[in-house]
Amino acid sequence: MNQAIGHKRWAIAEGYIPSYGNGPEPAFTSHETACILNTSDLDAHIKIWIYFEDRDPIGPYQETVQAKRTKHLRFNNLKEPEPVPLDTDYASVIESDVPIVVQHTRLDSRQAENALISTIAYPVAI
């Protein structure tokens, strides 16, 4: 591919990480993931903000997705500036300095019959 695809700002309006799961860890740990695709020739410097119903946002969390690579960022693993709280509804905004594509995935393993959902994030025009 000769040119970057995607957008520089994305929103995921839904997020929730259960505090428990069913099955061996880490494979069956309930989680939220932002799957990020960077097709550009430049590294993507990512900033993520987490929004809540009843408190101020936290962030930015900062990550890098190398040029012409993909990275799956588990929200469970975001630690700085603070861990994303469990058992709490949230939404997120992801910004990049180069165009990227973002897909949202959740594994909910609270029951033995695990549920996996995935959807494209919402691209926000700048």
Automatic annotation (TrEMBL):
SUPFAM superfamilies: Hypothetical protein TM1070 (SSF89232). Pfam families: ASRT. This is Sensory rhodopsin transducer. InterPro entries: ASRT, TM1070-like_sf.
